[in-house]
């Protein structure tokens, strides 16, 4: 049994229509059939499970959501078609909310199937944070052939989910009632965003995740509706989010680029998005970097730099059609260096002025079943602002710094001004796209170089 979307559009009371079969606990979201295929899969050794997943991927037998606009046009969006988002194919010229804020907001949480309950996660509790890490590490995105898996640390999740003014109500979990196991999660964090000429208080939606055994049971729409309700209760009606699938309707789409820092290791782990036809010797030579940075006055950011970075960043972000509006506490939260989470460097001139900023965050992955390597570290570009140093030179130094800190690869989306240095610095384009979305806001499409917002997931 699973939720049907119409169960959730019943004029606000969200009551679950009674099923003839009485299903309890986790079985409410369990696949129907004589034998649970997941139990069958679980009984196999992990290596065998991976082989099966790889084969499914190869033959495209796995269910998948649209990755392109063309596929999206053939897909029926049972849930998203009920939501205040622009329709696919609409030529949007207007700017503004799709629905007003005058409707009543339901008081009660959306109904879950029997055996499941909502839980607002208190992420200041280390045990709960550990549970969230486990859910995400075992169930969040994997590379297509299931050999490299994202590995979230509690420090990283604190950074991503607990910025200033965050609301614990927006850390929304679903548990199995009997054993309290966390099986679903979605979060929102407050964010002021500038879209074209409008500054709007909204939320960033992050880390939507459903346990693998409960997939394709329509749990995601319930999580999204419940989070929307909780956000509405605080008087906010817009959200910004990203996804690698095409939903109605992307505001912009960008591509991921990557720059090997440790080509030997990337080749050894068969890094899936590395499509360079090179042997090891050539790859080592091609990707070689100087040992030391070149920019005079380049140093790690300190708290005292924040008031001087703020105007620099705001002026830079004003150039784009979609960008965050940051207060000083928010800037300190997002940029101040934290070990294994976020690195920010500034360039200080002889006169003490700050002219440039470059920041990148850490994305850690686990390498599964490899005889030598267990983990991979990627540095992902957050912001780069250059007013004194040439942008390509500054980014070249960022690569050197990342390599010296033990990162294996540097990644960046082709948003903002990034396209101007990606090829020059030997980044290669990957096959991974990322789409930007706004909830309950319509405005014309923008190209990636008009996007000034990066949302760490
Ligand atoms: C994303 C995820 C929660 C979706 O769960 P699921 O069990 O596959 O899907 P469900 O049956 O619960 O719901 C399907 C609906 O959710 C929508 N959906 C799926 N992924 C979505 C996403 N990332 N963002 C928004 N909506 C999404 C689908 O489009 C579908 O709605 P539709 O009928 O309008 O097309 C699940 O696949 C997951 O946990 N994946 C790993 C983590 C991840 O990739 N998170 C998203 C990061 S952007």
Write down the secondary-structure element order. Answer: HHHEHEHEEEHEEHHEHEHEEEHEHE
**CATH fold-level name of the largest domain:** Aminopeptidase
Q: Between the first and last Cα atoms, what is the distance in angstroms?
A: 30 Å
CATH architecture of the largest domain: 3-Layer(aba) Sandwich
Mean pLDDT, as a whole number? 89
- Summarize the biggest pleated sheet: 14 strands, mixed
CATH class of the largest domain: Alpha Beta
Radius of gyration from the CA trace?
23 Å
Task: Summarize it.
The protein is an alpha+beta fold. The chain has helices at 37-42, 46-58, 69-74, 126-139, 154-161, 219-233, 263-268, 280-286, 306-317, 328-335, 391-404, 419-422; strands at 116-120, 148-150, 171-176, 182-195, 198-210, 239-243, 252-260, 298-300, 322-324, 342-348, 354-367, 375-386, 409-413, 428-439.
Task: Supply database-style keywords.
457 residues, alpha+beta, Aminopeptidase, 14-stranded mixed β-sheet, 12 helices, 14 strands, 25% helix, globular, disordered N terminus, binds coenzyme A, membrane, acyltransferase, Acyl_CoA_acyltransferase
Give a structural overview.
This protein is α+β, with helices and mostly antiparallel strands and 457 residues long. The protein has 2 domains: 5-241, Aminopeptidase (3-Layer(aba) Sandwich), CATH 3.40.630.170; 253-450, Aminopeptidase (3-Layer(aba) Sandwich), CATH 3.40.630. Helices cover 25% and strands 24% of the residues. The protein is built from 12 helices and 14 strands. It has helices at 37-42, 46-58, 69-74, 126-139, 154-161, 219-233, 263-268, 280-286, 306-317, 328-335, 391-404, 419-422, and strands at 116-120, 148-150, 171-176, 182-195, 198-210, 239-243, 252-260, 298-300, 322-324, 342-348, 354-367, 375-386, 409-413, 428-439. Strands 1, 2, 3, 4, 5, 6, 7, 8, 9, 10, 11, 12, 13 and 14 form a 14-stranded mixed sheet that branches. It is globular. The structure holds coenzyme A.
């Amino acid at each position: 049994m699973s939720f049907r979307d119409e169960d959730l559009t019943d004029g606000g009371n969200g009551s679950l229509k009674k099923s003839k079969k009485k299903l309890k606990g986790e079985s409410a979201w369990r696949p129907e059939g004589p034998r649970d295929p997941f139990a069958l899969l679980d009984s196999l050794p992990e290596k065998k499970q991976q082989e099966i997943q790889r084969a499914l991927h190869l033959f495209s037998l796995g269910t998948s959501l649209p990755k392109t606009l063309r596929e999206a046009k053939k897909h029926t969006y049972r849930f998203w078609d009920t939501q205040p988002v622009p329709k696919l194919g609409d030529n949007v010229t207007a700017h503004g909310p799709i629905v007003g804020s005058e409707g009543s907001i339901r008081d009660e949480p959306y109904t879950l199937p029997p055996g499941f309950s909502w839980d607002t996660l208190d992420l200041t509790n280390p045990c709960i944070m550990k549970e969230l890490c486990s859910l995400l590490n075992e169930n969040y995105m994997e590379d297509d052939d299931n050999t490299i898996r994202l590995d979230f640390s509690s420090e990283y999740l604190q950074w991503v989910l607990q910025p200033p003014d965050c609301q614990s109500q927006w850390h929304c979990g679903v548990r199995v009632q009997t054993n309290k196991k966390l099986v679903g999660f979605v979060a929102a964090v407050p964010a002021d965003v500038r879209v074209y000429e409008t500054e709007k208080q909204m939320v960033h939606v992050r880390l939507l995740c459903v346990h693998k055994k409960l997939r394709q049971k329509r749990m995601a729409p319930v999580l999204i509706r419940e989070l929307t309700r909780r956000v509405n209760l605080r008087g906010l009606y817009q959200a910004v989010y990203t996804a690698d699938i095409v939903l109605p309707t992307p505001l912009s789409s960008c591509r991921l680029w990557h720059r090997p820092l440790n080509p030997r290791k990337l080749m050894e782990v068969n890094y899936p998005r590395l499509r360079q036809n090179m042997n090891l010797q050539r790859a080592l030579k091609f990707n070689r970097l100087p040992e030391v940075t070149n920019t005079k006055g380049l140093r790690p950011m300190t708290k005292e730099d924040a008031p001087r970075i703020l105007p620099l960043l705001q002026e830079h972000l004003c150039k784009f059609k979609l960008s965050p509006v940051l207060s000083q506490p928010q800037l300190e939260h997002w940029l101040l260096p934290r070990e294994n989470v976020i690195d920010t460097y500034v360039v200080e001139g002889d006169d003490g002025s700050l002219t440039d900023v470059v920041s990148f965050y850490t994305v850690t992955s686990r390498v599964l079943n490899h005889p030598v390597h267990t983990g991979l570290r990627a540095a992902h570009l957050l912001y780069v602002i250059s007013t004194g140093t040439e942008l390509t030179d500054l980014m070249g130094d960022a690569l050197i710094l990342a390599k010296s800190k033990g990162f294996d690869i540097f990644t960046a989306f082709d948003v903002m001004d990034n396209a101007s240095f990606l090829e020059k610095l030997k980044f290669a384009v990957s096959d991974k796209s990322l789409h930007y979305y706004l909830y309950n806001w319509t405005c014309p499409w923008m190209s990636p170089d008009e996007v000034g917002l990066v949302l760490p997931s």
